[in-house]
Design goal:
Elements (H helix, E strand, L loop, with lengths): L4 H13 L6 H28 L4 H28 L5 H14 L3 H25 L1 H9 L3 E6 L2 E6 L8 E4 L3 E2 L4 E5 L2 E4 L1 H4 L5 E3 L4 E2 L4 E4 L2 E5 L7 H14 L3 H28 L2 H11 L2 H20 L2 E3 L2 H8 L3 E5 H5 L5 E7 L5 H12 L5 H13 L8 E5 L3 E6 L2 E6 L1 H6 L6 H13 L2 E7 L2 E9 L6 H10 L4 E5 L4 H7 L7 E3 L4 H13 L4 E5 L5 H6 L2 E5 L5 H6 L2 E3 L5 H36 L5 H20 L11
Length: 644
């Protein structure tokens, strides 16, 4: 009776969200019309029972209830048998209904189909909860935008907004489309997209996502994506497709259900032949319906993937869930995954009593107009330490060596040893020791000079994210045997940067193609490998791994295409959440399959021996289905408890 359970769950969510514009009466009817048929049937059955089943009035009332409740079941069974060439569970109920009417058990037949319809209605109500993720995501999409054109504010449908349009977003309003802040400052709640609980400050130049909430400040945003290409629309599409994809465990259940129906028909005939009791055979048909078995997997997958999506974890299909359960090895890229991917000043040293602030100020003055990543790190440190740089009169970038600036007739040199040698300045022992120390610590060392005097050094390096150690600890706690890091850095630098991360092995000096080969090597050794990377230069390895996880790459098409799981933020802890949620989902599926088989088997024995009748059989059947759906619903609010 649930051949299209998965599609029904998802399509209902899409319909419910987009059914705006109806009148109150229409909405009331749409919401409660499914209850009209059961209520009318209950009235007819009660009236028939009071009149007496043996009386003409009682018989006609009961038959009317049979027709009203049985029509949708009989119609679907005929459609499935003739059109789809498939014997589904509704064929069993149709046979049971016909047999009940044949032997004159009109009230029993009416009650059986009524119980089936009520049970399915209760299941749909419960199932709707497992599909809340799709609905809640779709509700994030704004319907209109306030566009500024020719100096005027125009309210328009988001489908009509074009790339380059300027939209105005006031405090408390949804940001309608993806874009870049052009004017204003504010704080935005990005939790629906990234799962971050804290408000994120936004200022000119920062990117924003449609569907997020501007809570503080007025923002003018230049649109960079149309409504069909926004991050939220991609997420909805991905979640929708993922929930609709059948994992291997469900395909096994489908195959089981396909031959189960003819076997149960044969069993019912056998019971009838042996016992001579038609009602006993009817009861076998009623309890045999494998509804609970069929809906066990789709409800769990929909609930699990939906829960993950709300937490910023986009899982691309039910099949991925099953592979995650088998993982033995996690492989991390370094830059942008375990580290922030941006140079940071870690060390500042002054030589011969020169202060750190003096060294920073000189370095910042030289780098003030440079666009080099190391310059950005130095200037950021200047702001943090309040070592204000001056505005140089001229700057000259010497590629691969450093930069030379002039201020008030003085020459400021910031660079490596080769630059100083070219300027005829010999490094002091302090400067040489500083450079050696930086190499040992995995940092890039630059020397700062004023005129012919060497005044200090600045050490710059990429640094580990704050949550790396705890995240790796959580991954190992979930049963992952080995956690590795693959990097293009030399081994000394890689070891220095990753010290204290809890990694089992570091493999350095690898180009992207070498990373791919290493993943292949691990798989050849029998390991089930998850590769975690930024989804751009690691795309080949992400595809090759048993499970590819791209993180912090929201809106990057390459990452979404390459990876099996996309983490919408840079929070490494989401990887352990994905493992835990996948394992919980597969565990729930197995529990539900066991429950459905156990209840069906027990009910078949009781029905075959005559211990229960059709009505009790229908009740037991529906209890099994509701228990299975309720078990899947536990995934809606599941949270992985991390190490504290």
């Amino acid at each position: 009776m649930h051949d299209v359970a998965r599609e029904t769950i998802i399509d209902k969510e899409l319909t419910d969200v987009h059914s705006h514009g109806e009148t109150g009466i229409q909405r009331f009817f749409d919401r409660y019309r499914e209850f009209i048929n059961p209520i009318v049937c209950v009235v007819l059955i009660l009236a028939g029972w009071l009149k007496g089943e043996s009386t003409p009035q009682g018989m006609y009332l009961a038959l009317a209830a049979c027709v009203l409740s049985g029509y949708p079941i009989v119609r679907n069974s005929i459609t499935s048998t003739i059109t789809n060439k498939k014997l589904n569970a509704e064929v069993l109920v149709t046979c049971a209904l016909i047999a009940s009417i044949w032997v004159g058990e009109y009230v029993a037949g009416a009650i059986v189909v009524l119980m089936m319809n009520i049970g399915e209605l209760l299941e749909e109500i419960t199932i709707a909860k497992t599909g809340e993720a799709v609905r809640s995501l779709m509700e994030l999409e704004a319907e209109t935008a306030r566009v500024i054109r020719n100096g005027r504010e125009i309210e328009m449908d988001i489908a009509d907004v074009m790339i380059g349009d300027l939209v105005l977003v006031k405090p408390g309003e949804k940001i309608p489309l993806d874009g870049t802040v052009k004017e204003g400052r504010g704080e935005v709640n990005q939790a629906p997209i990234t799962g971050e609980s804290a408000l994120i400050a936004k200022e000119p130049g920062d990117g924003v996502y449609g569907g997020t909430l501007n809570q503080i400040g007025v923002l003018k945003i230049e649109v960079t994506r149309v409504s069909t290409e926004t991050v939220i629309s991609k997420i909805i599409d991905m979640v929708h497709k993922a929930q609709a994809e059948k994992p291997p465990i469900e395909r096994v259940a489908d195959r089981f259900a396909s031959w189960f129906t003819p076997v149960m028909l044969a069993l019912a005939c056998l019971v009838w032949i042996v016992t001579g009791e038609v009602l006993r055979a009817v009861t076998v048909l009623v309890v045999a319906c494998p509804c609970a078995l069929v809906i066990a997997t789709p409800t769990a997958v929909v609930a699990g993937i939906g829960n993950a999506a709300r937490r910023g974890i986009l899982i691309k299909g039910g099949a991925v869930l099953e592979v995650i359960v088998k993982l033995t090895t996690f492989v991390f890229d370094k830059t942008g995954t375990l580290t922030y991917g941006a140079p940071t000043v870690k060390h500042v040293h002054g030589f011969d009593d020169v202060t750190k602030n003096k060294v920073l100020s000189l370095a910042g003055t030289a780098e003030r107009h440079s666009e080099h990543p190391l310059a950005e790190a130095i200037l950021k440190c200047c702001r943090e330490e309040e070592a204000w740089p001056l505005d140089p009169e001229s700057t000259e970038v010497i590629v691969g060596k450093g930069i030379v600036a002039k201020k008030d007739g003085r020459e400021i040199i910031v660079g490596n040893e080769r630059l100083f040698n070219e300027r005829g300045i010999e490094l002091t022992s302090d400067a040489r020791q500083f450079l050696d120390d930086m190499v040992e610590s995995g940092a890039t060392g630059v020397i700062v000079g004023e005129g012919t005097r060497i005044v200090g050094g600045v050490g710059i390096a990429d640094v580990l994210k704050e949550d790396v150690y705890e995240s790796i600890k959580d991954i190992k706690r979930l049963g992952i045997k080995k956690v590795l890091m693959l990097t293009g850095d030399n081994k000394k630098v890689a070891q220095a940067i990753s010290e204290g991360a809890g990694l089992d092995k570091i493999v350095a000096d690898l180009l992207p193609e070498a990373k791919l080969e290493y993943v292949k090597k691990l798989k050849a050794q029998g390991e089930k490998v998850a590769m975690v990377g930024d989804g751009i230069n690691d795309a080949p390895s992400l595809v090759e791994a048993d499970v590819g996880i791209a993180m912090g790459v929201i809106g990057t098409d390459a990452a979404i295409e390459a990876a099996d799981i996309v983490l919408t933020s840079d929070n490494l802890g989401k990887a352990s959440e994905a493992i835990a949620l996948s394992r919980k989902t597969v565990s729930i599926i197995k529990q539900s399959l066991f429950i459905s088989v156990a209840i069906n088997s027990a009910a078949l024995i009781l029905a075959s021996t005559g211990e229960i009748g059709p009505i009790v059989g229908a009740i037991i059947h529906n209890i099994g289905s509701i228990v299975v759906v309720g078990n899947s619903s536990r995934l809606i609010g599941y949270r992985f408890k991390k190490n504290n």
